[in-house]
């Protein structure tokens, strides 16, 4: 006796699309679709060809393929069928580390390998459904790069993936509206780091794209200081005269004591990662309210007494900031009212333990802080007051030293 239902299967192709008849003696199949599919799977497993099919399917699952018993009727719910691992790598000039060595807090190859960079990637959703702040690192000084969990290219050429990247990696970073990165400047200067985004168009990528290149650019401005001691602001310090810089405060233009509760700098903003321009797009900047303080621990040497200026080291300006204590701030035009630099420093005379005094002064600076630019202010410190050299050194961070090639492709067979 033959029932009016016979199994029609697409062997090893991933789904059972219809169930109509089965040979007699197996009984009536379940009435619902999912039940018929599971019953059909059990029947196929009893056959030699079915067993071979199941073995192949299990092997495909273990090695990255995705086998679906479709329990939904909407075709748009179909998952990615993978064909190859998404691989990452970077390419940096040989001179990267030498050029970056004296710049402080700027991402270099070694830091990038250790701290990694982050990738957000989107398949079909407006949330990062392919990669959600995935950390990419290197354990062999940048020769190879790894991440987890491993991702695979969609098999369908029409399926596209959008990639957005930033550096260095931060586990707290999230995006909204696909590519808007929330960022807040740490008040503690030692916690301020370089921030970069990739301005390469890496949207609508597929398995045919091959290599996805990330060209990172700096999104922040950097402020650093040098100092030189002068008697009466012009002559070198005399032997036996010591000046200890103890505190710097970057504060509002009307704050001459460094005691204001707020400052002139932005503290929060939203960075657009989907930006192919050479300058960053910052949105939703808050009202300026942030100030920054540097003390002895932020200066070269980190001595409790402060940064020492004396006759032997004041022939030319010397770096004041420790390597981890450069200010990394949001780009901002402060060329109108500017901001004040409040300084406290002690003047001592060798051989006269009781002869010392502390100067407290503030000086105003007007700057248009642009992204990717480093500003070095030279402080001319005298016995009674200090001034700021009007020739502020402004240098650009070399953009050609921040090019990364991210290799996304199919492994060689």
Average pLDDT works out at 76
List low-confidence stretches: 1-29, 57-82, 91-104, 399-413
Portion of residues in beta strands equals 35-45%
Strand element count? 26
Helix content: under 10%
Topology as a string of helices (H) and strands (E)? EEHHEHHEEEEEEEEEEEEEEEEEEEEEEE
| Oligomer kind | single chain
Class by helix and strand content?
mainly beta
End-to-end CA span: 50 Å
Instruction: Tell me about the largest β-sheet.
Output: 7 strands, mixed
Rounded to the nearest angstrom, the radius of gyration is 31 Å
Judging from the principal axes of the Cα atoms, what is the shape?
elongated
Number of helices: 4
Brief digest:
By secondary structure, the chain is mainly β. The protein is built from four helices and 26 strands.
Describe the model.
The protein is mainly beta and 413 residues long. Helix content is 10%, strand content 36%. The protein contains four helices and 26 strands. Strands 12, 13, 19, 20, 23, 24 and 25 form a seven-stranded mixed β-sheet that branches. A hairpin with a 3-residue loop joins strand 12 and strand 13. It is elongated, with a radius of gyration of 31 Å. The two termini are 50 Å apart.
What labels would you give this structure?
seven-stranded mixed β-sheet, 413 residues, disordered C terminus
Topology, please?
Elements: E1 7-8, E2 18-19, H1 33-45, H2 48-62, E3 82-85, H3 96-100, H4 109-115, E4 117-122, E5 131-136, E6 152-154, E7 162-167, E8 175-176, E9 180-184, E10 196-198, E11 211-218, E12 221-231, E13 235-236, E14 241-251, E15 268-272, E16 282-283, E17 292-295, E18 307-309, E19 318-319, E20 327-329, E21 332-349, E22 352-369, E23 373-381, E24 386-388, E25 393-396, E26 403-407
Parallel strand pairs: 12-23
Antiparallel strand pairs: 1-2, 3-6, 4-5, 4-7, 7-10, 8-9, 9-15, 10-11, 11-26, 12-13, 12-19, 12-20, 14-17, 14-18, 14-21, 15-16, 21-22, 23-24, 23-25
């Amino acid at each position: 006796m033959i029932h009016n239902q016979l199994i029609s299967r697409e062997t090893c192709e991933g789904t059972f699309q219809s169930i109509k008849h089965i040979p007699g003696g197996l009984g009536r199949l379940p009435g619902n679709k999912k039940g018929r599919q599971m019953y059909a799977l059990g029947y196929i497993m009893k056959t030699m060809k079915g067993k071979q099919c199941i073995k192949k399917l299990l092997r495909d699952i273990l090695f990255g393929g995705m086998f679906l018993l479709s329990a939904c009727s909407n075709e748009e719910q179909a998952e990615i069928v993978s064909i190859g691992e998404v691989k990452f790598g970077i390419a940096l000039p040989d001179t990267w580390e030498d050029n970056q060595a004296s710049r402080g807090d700027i991402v270099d190859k070694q830091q990038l390998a250790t701290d990694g960079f982050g990738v957000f990637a989107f398949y079909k959703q407006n949330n990062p459904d392919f990669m959600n702040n995935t950390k990419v690192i290197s354990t062999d000084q940048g020769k190879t790069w790894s991440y987890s969990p491993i991702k695979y290219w969609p098999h369908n050429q029409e399926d596209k993936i959008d990639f957005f990247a930033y550096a260095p990696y931060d586990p707290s970073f999230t995006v909204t509206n696909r590519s808007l990165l929330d960022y807040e400047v740490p008040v503690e200067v030692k916690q301020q780091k370089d921030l970069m985004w990739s301005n390469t168009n890496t949207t609508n990528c597929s398995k045919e794209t091959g290599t996805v290149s990330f060209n990172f650019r700096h999104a922040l401005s950097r402020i650093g200081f040098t100092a030189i001691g002068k008697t009466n602001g012009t002559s070198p310090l005399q032997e036996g005269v010591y000046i200890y810089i103890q505190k710097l405060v970057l504060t509002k233009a009307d704050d001459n004591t460094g005691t204001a509760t707020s400052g002139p700098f932005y503290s929060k903003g939203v960075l657009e990662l989907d930006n192919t321009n050479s300058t960053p797009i910052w949105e939703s900047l808050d009202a300026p309210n942030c100030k920054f303080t540097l003390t002895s621990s932020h200066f070269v040497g980190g001595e409790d007494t402060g940064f020492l200026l004396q006759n032997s080291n004041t022939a030319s300006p010397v770096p004041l900031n420790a390597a981890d204590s450069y200010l990394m701030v949001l780009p901002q035009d402060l060329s109108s009212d500017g901001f004040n630099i409040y300084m406290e420093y002690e003047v001592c005379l060798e051989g006269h333990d009781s002869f010392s005094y502390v100067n407290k002064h503030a000086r105003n600076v007007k700057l248009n802080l642009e992204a990717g630019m480093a500003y070095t202010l030279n402080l001319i410190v005298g016995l009674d007051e200090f001034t700021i050299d009007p020739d502020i050194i402004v240098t650009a961070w070399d953009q050609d030293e921040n090019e990364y090639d991210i290799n996304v492709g199919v492994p060689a067979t």
